[in-house]
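Pilot study result, target chain (303 residues):
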Amino acid sequence: MSAGLGTRLAPYTDHTPKPLLPLAGVPLFQWVVDQLYEAGIEKIFFNVHSHSKVFLDQVKNIDFNGLEFEWIDERKQLLGSGGTLIQVSQLIKDPYFLVINADALLLDSLRNFLKKAVSLNTKDPELFWWIHSGKNTKGSYSEIIVENDKVKEIRNKNISSPFFCGTSIVPAFYLRDFDVKSIEYRDLLMNPFLKKDKILSFESSPLFLDIGDPRAWWESHFVWMDEMKKQKGLPLWLKRMNQVNRCVDDGWVHREIKKVPKKGYGYWGKNAESDVAHQHVTYEGRPQDFALSWGGEISLFNK
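Predicted structure:
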């Protein structure tokens, strides 16, 4: 799911699609594609709406690792999180398919989640949700009540409670009966399947990076770089991280920076945390350079 407007990340999304914003110098979209590849996914569908020309120009630079891909055209009208899924269901033959957001990262393998889904019913449709336990997360999300691996209730937003992290497996054979139209996921799938007691769950506690607003985006850089320095994460993530950056004693430096700076553009480390940690992105009106630029305005984060 990659067509959102990214309004909470303005002004950075005023000219750039949210999935192309950088995390450690690499577009978010690339990290998600790498995760899908390592999970054994064979084909990727992604929808395009916001800043579509920039998106389609820059997606040529994404390394799809040999995977097939196809984009869903929503340039004239957003189909909503449900309408996109209806269209995808009509383009594939599989009974189920995976849905994942292009602006959130789970620092865990998708393989375990997919393995749990092999027993999904191919006659009586079910939803399968990845539920985060809520441990070690800062955001406020709708609380999910689970009993015997089934979602029973969705409550108001809470902190440190189990929540749906946006990754799910949905029944294509059920969706094919609908005409393509603008509709949201909650109305098409969540509410009807919750009422029927047909939402199964997989719960774990991986590090969860939700790039929803500028501060979360900034904080995600430090979590991500720390995990990569510990050699945690998928092998392809570690490889790509080292292609773009080089590890130094107390942080990372973009490979475009020849001399290790003490602070500022392209540097992340202990010094950065005290005075320039907020400086994470600079946008100079050139989208093609954006994924390689860090810098920013401290005032934005102090509001």
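One observation from the pilot: The CA atoms of residues 228 and 241 lie 7 Å apart. A full batch analysis is planned for the follow-on phase.
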